[in-house]
From TrEMBL:
Name used for this protein in its record: ABM domain-containing protein
InterPro entries: ABM_dom, Dimeric_a/b-barrel
Domain of life where this protein originates: Bacteria
Domain ABM: 4-71
Classification via Pfam families: ABM
Organism: Cryobacterium frigoriphilum
Length: 97
């Protein structure tokens, strides 16, 4: 079953200028990762330092493999942009509602 992941990011104010280029590079790898169906970046209309990454994965397993890769050999410099730890929420589509 497909999985939707919301990654809630709060950027440091002094990283706003550098963030787009770094995120493009990081998300290039994410979008190319096996099982990734797409990633959209949503910017808070009232706070440019608040982003939501809307990720779509082919399965829970594909997402788990990706998260393990990012925690290991696929680690990125994303943390250097962040004012606080990212919040991750995972959702499956309810087909009976």
């Amino acid at each position: 079953m497909a999985l939707t992941v919301l990654l809630d990011l709060r950027l440091k104010a002094d990283t706003l200028a550098a963030a787009p280029a770094m995120l493009r590079e990081i998300l290039s790898d994410t979008r190319a990762f096996d099982g990734c169906l797409g990633v959209d970046v949503l910017v808070d209309a009232d706070d440019a330092a608040h982003l939501i990454l809307l990720e779509r994965w082919a399965s829970v397993e594909a997402d788990a493999v990706y998260r393990a890769w990012r925690a290991g050999t696929g680690a990125s410099a994303l943390g250097s942009l962040l004012a606080s730890a990212p919040q991750v929420s995972k959702f499956e589509t309810a087909s009976d509602i």
